[in-house]
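ASSEMBLY PREDICTION REQUEST
Request ID: AP-0331
Submitted by: J.K., bench scientist
Number of chains: two
Total residues: 911
Priority: normal
Notes: Please return the full assembly, not individual chains.
Input sequences:
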Amino acid sequence: MNGCSNQSRRRFGRLRAGSLGVVSVLLLGALAFTVTGCGTKAKNTITVLSAGDVDYLDPGLAFYQFSYEVIYPVDRPLISYKAGSTDYQPDMAASLPTVSDGGKTYTVHLRTGVKFAPPVNREVTSADVKYAIERGFAQSVPNSYAGVYFGTLVGVPKTSPATPKGLDIPGIETPNKSTIVFKLTKPSGVFVGALSLPLTAPVPEEYASKFDNKKQSDYGFHQIATGPYMIKANKAGTITGVGYVAKQKITLVRNPNWSSKTDFRPAKADEVIFSEGFQDSTVLAKKILAGTGDVNGDTPIPATEMQPIMANSSQKKQLFFTPVSGTRFIPLNMSKPPFNNIDVRKAVAYVLDRDAMRKTRGGVLSGKIATHFIDPGFGTHGFDQSGGFGFNPFPSPGSKGDVAKAKAEMKKAGFPSGMYTGPTLTMVADNVPPGSDTAKVVINSLGKIGFKVNLIAQAHATMYTDFCNVPKVEPNICPNVGWQADFAEPQTLLDATFDGTAIIPRNNSNWPQLNDPAINAAMVKAEVIVDPLKRYQAWGQIDKMITETAAAVPWLWEDWPTLFSSRVDPALQLWNGGSPDVAFMAVK
Amino acid sequence: MIERGDNLVDEISAPDLSEIVGRGPWELFWLRFREDKVALVSFGVIVAIVLIAIFAPFIVDVLGHPPNAQYPNTLNDVGTPVTGPSADFLFGVDKVGEDVFSRVVYGARVSLEVALFSTAIAVFVGVIAGMVAGFYRGLADTLISRFIDVMLAFPVLLLAMGVASACAIGNGCLNGLIKPGVPTVVAVIAIINWTYIGRIIRGQVLSLREKEFVEAARASGAGDVSILFREILPNLVAPIVVYTTLVIPQNILLEAALSYLGVGVGVQQASWGQMISDSTQYFNIAWWYFTFPGAALLITVLAFNLLGDGIRDALDPRTVEVT
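STATUS: Completed
Returned structure:
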């Protein structure tokens, strides 16, 4: 498909009299290419605009909504999703796994005829999937969820080896080239869902081991695709400087070894460009409306742009709102006063003006006020079971906060005037909007019951890595956190965030440091329920228990706005919070 | 017609010696200054702004709402500020429903505090450094001048952003000496500025030290420090005053720029630069949000600039030299 570049590589020789004829043929040829092939190549390109970069390009490490927009069209996990759907779609697998042995054995048959991209070029086998999962347990490939979802595999190493060299997990069996059998030590309700994570995308060991056996694997910069697209690479397979320029651009081109017969994706575009660095979301939105960009990758469309779009009948059709499958909440640090006292926490749950907080992110266009932690996107998979919209233990008129009820709780907590009289609280928040605005509104609400707050503003990533995720130095409040489901199971919403046994000294996600024995025990029981309805019932109950401890105050079930330009047919990764699905988008 | 032989001295009216008063340079300065209408008006404006800053709590009590009080009802359904200048909110509201009028008034405090303190520190350090470098020459001069050269080579805004970001974390820099917020911004601006005044003063001192009165002082047994503070420093007052008045508006703008870039005094303090930065997203919907802080910044900076020009013109360097 590279006719044009061949043309441009033709050398300029010395023009002699007789070459005039050659020149005219060349000119005509060039003209012909422009009219037919080369000219439309630029037209059949999709451009995704974003502010920042992916977290990782290695499918064994990526753990970020935006990264999945690049990874899923390029690397095929065992299970993934069609655009516009949240049903499990067998991807590398030919069909959904058969579950046996009371939920302890999962048998997966792979599709045949799926090939790795150049320079590996050979067919994918079960050994490649086995290696892909095993490498996530090594220190050189520090996958953040391998232990959580695959830790129950038989023979998982107790301590992570430095590299995947020689690592063998007996619980992953490969009886033949196209079959994998997973054996677990105990039943798991979520193992099928976990197979939709990119850790299961095949990795060719003979090519990858030289990268994985370093102290920190850099396979991500040399990764081999199995999907309809690959990240543009040089002949050796290196993408740095070719298809990947950090913080600037990622270029996807067609995987020459991909066959549409083995795939459910249309993959109509010839090229996909992720153009990064758009810090100003207003500029980003305007570019999409003008058609110089095709969709927003990691940045929401600001409310000031959304309003005129909604008022314009043709532009309105380009804007989509997708429930994000998660909740934004305000965790209250229970490990130290004053939030070790449940009455004080309840007071905060009553006083926070959630409507004003929502206005900082776009008001009614940004989603629904949250009242517990399993969000409406889950529907009958846990949302209804946790009481749906009706379960709201700390209601207030218009969700604007109830100062009277808050003061009543403070009196119960031992503050006779209803106003807090203790030391100033510490808060670490975003230093840019909308996070900084949300923090300001929270401080304002807290002030109504006498709390004074010392605010430290940080960059978003630093806020997590240096403060909120480190229990030893965690402030009283971290108002800019939230949690999104890893896949469509309520366990993925509530475990890492509220399980007392999940508290770790660094990279902690149980921000309130909630450690309630009854809740912990209920989670242990729920994790092994294989029957889906019973499982959702159990987690619904757990959601109610957590909400009633007021360990954290939920405030937003977010709807993510995705804006497409008028030159493309839209397609959404509904399962990934409304991110664009480039393998299903097409230029009109 | 004057006849020959007449005493010309008698005819040409002799100057009435009783009317000639020896005017000191400051008197001359004042006489010239008060002729300059523009400078006088600017001085008046600055006095007004300083008074507004000092009496901010009273003004806001009467005419506005507390600067950090939020009124989400003034925003529409999607969180956009839709309440413009009105009886209740003289300058409208900002993006979280705060009173823009109150924040503009309190913003005057931040701008003036930061500009005055940082300028004072910069001038103090710069003058000392310049005097030492210019007077002693030799090694001291080499060290100080080269250090100044290095600092001047740094891109100002990047240096400011770097230092401000580093000191915005937790307890600040220098073991809590420079806390995040106003102190950090003051420190950053002072660090950037002292080099300019240092160079100017060094140049002045280099020429002053060659003057006869310095030689005379040395001959009568005065020590170095005495010469520096009694002979040289008084002659530096004029350039110091001029420089100070001209650099204050630059520092006000620098503080606004740092706040605009997110490394300023922090989101809780009302700051004109911060407000202008926050308002860009709403410029076609909430015009009041950037107009009033922008106008306040413009008027303040303009007033200081015009005052500085007036002072410089009134001082007229030639007069200073003839002592």
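REVIEWER COMMENTS: Chain A touches chain B through 33 residues (CB under 8 Å).
SIGN-OFF: pending second reviewer
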